[in-house]
């Protein structure tokens, strides 16, 4: 499996690097990060070429982010994995989906008031009124929890099939 992934990675990297026009040597293609093959710098697994400047072209200096740490953090702490890979807009949205139900539950617990001191139900307990506002808050928090659960399942799948890219647009490994 690792050899198949490496060969797919090698050929896609080879297709991306064929555009370079400088001569490949040890200065512009450092040895542990890449190697010169047919005067082209081919990056080793885990390194990419990023942000080339015309005057000092150096290839394979950007170390790719692994997908496993953000995946594990995303499973146990929703939205933290997206903060790590630089997708702050998704992370902030998911963080609000975590905070909204907690906030709504705090409001909902405080809204339940006794109907009256003398209002006892058949079992002898004081009846409590359930205002319409409490049901709306409960429905809103339930909706946000279901949406968060759906997003978590989708995110786990997208982290497992390396779909996401880091904040610089380089694929995760």
What does the model show?
By secondary structure, this protein is mainly α. The chain has 2 domains: 2-63, no CATH class; 68-160. Helix content is 49%, strand content 7%. It is built from 5 helices and 4 strands, in the order αββββαααα. Strand 1 and strand 2 form a beta hairpin. Helix 4 runs antiparallel to helix 5 (132-160). The longest helix has 29 residues, at 132-160. The mean pLDDT is 78.
Question: Which descriptors apply to this entry?
Answer:
5 helices, two-stranded antiparallel sheet, rod-shaped, single chain, mainly alpha, 2 domains, 173 residues
Please outline the helices and strands.
Layout (H helix, E strand, L loop, with lengths): L1 H16 L16 E4 L2 E4 L3 E2 L13 E2 L4 H9 L3 H6 L2 H24 L20 H29 L13
Antiparallel strand pairs: 1-2, 3-4
Count of beta strands? 4
Shape: rod-shaped
Strand fraction equals 5-15%
Rounded to the nearest angstrom, the distance between the terminal CA atoms is 14 Å
Taken in chain order, the helices and strands follow as: HEEEEHHHH
Mean pLDDT, to the nearest integer, reads: 78
Largest sheet: 2 strands, antiparallel
Radius of gyration: 27 Å
Q: Total number of helical segments? A: 5
| Helical content (DSSP H or I, runs of 4+) | 40-55%
**Largest sheet strand order:** 1-2
Structural class: mainly alpha
Return the domain count: 2
Extract low-pLDDT stretches.
Answer: none
In short:
The chain is 49% helix and 7% strand. The chain starts with a helix and ends in a 13-residue tail after the last helix.
């Amino acid at each position: 499996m690792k050899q198949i992934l490496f060969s797919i990675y090698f050929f896609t990297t080879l297709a991306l690097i064929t555009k370079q026009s400088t001569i490949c040597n040890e200065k512009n293609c450092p040895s542990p990060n890449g190697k010169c093959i047919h005067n082209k710098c081919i990056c080793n697994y885990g390194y990419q070429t990023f942000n080339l400047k015309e005057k000092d072209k150096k290839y394979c200096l950007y170390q790719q982010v692994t997908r496993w740490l953000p995946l594990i953090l995303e499973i146990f702490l929703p939205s933290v994995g997206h903060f790590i890979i630089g997708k702050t807009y998704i992370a902030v949205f998911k963080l609000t989906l975590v905070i909204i139900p907690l906030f709504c539950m705090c409001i909902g617990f405080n809204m339940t008031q006794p109907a009256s001191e003398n209002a006892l139900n058949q079992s002898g307990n004081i009846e409590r009124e359930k205002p319409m506002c409490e049901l709306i808050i409960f429905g809103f928090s339930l909706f946000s929890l279901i949406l968060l659960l759906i997003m978590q399942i989708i995110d786990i799948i997208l982290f497992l099939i390396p779909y996401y890219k880091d904040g610089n647009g380089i694929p995760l490994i």
